[in-house]
User: Fold this.
Amino acid sequence: MKLEGARRFCAAGLRRRAISLGAVVAVGLALSKLVVFAGEGKPGKDAADTLTVVDLSALNWLSITWSTMEELVRVDKDGRTVPTLATEWKWLDDRTIEFKLRQGVAFQDGEKFNAHVFRRSFDEVQRWKAPHPPGAFLNFAPATKLSVVDDYTVRFTFPEPDASALMKFRGMHVGSTKFWDEGGFVHKKTGTAEGHW
Assistant:
């Protein structure tokens, strides 16, 4: 895979992870499908000091989705839920949560992120019977409702209280309109996104 190909996979606002040469050697001994690119230096650093590692394993679906898509929230190194595509959220009652969305985010194809684009991703995933192969506990109940309050505010209403809702948002990947229009996660042979990993 050429560097340009790897760059095409970078999505809305993601930062490339740079690691030391020593770490690359250690990881490279354990894994057989790594491609290493030199010269991806950060501003103020010599480009030769920085390497970018791309995992080519087709089985590493977490690496693929987390390196190409964003979610409303993520979990930091201390296990805290932190905003990513969301800037804040609040529970309006025990079944309703409202998110303020980050402004100024653009996908790699140039589309601007907003509540309507987010809705498309939610609607696409909700059509699947089993969107999360690691377990149904990551799926939103089919009766979950999403309301677009304004261009940068969305509101979810769950059919019953859901203590795991924030964890589920951590696993809901957001793609651009073009991504969904051109097939999304749909497998060409089966014509469905079920079991897409």
Summary: The helical segments are 3-8, 21-30, 61-68, 115-126, 165-170, 177-181. Strands lie at 18-19, 34-38, 51-55, 73-75, 81-83, 86-93, 96-101, 145-150, 153-157. The CA atoms of residues 72 and 169 lie 6 Å apart. The radius of gyration is 18 Å.
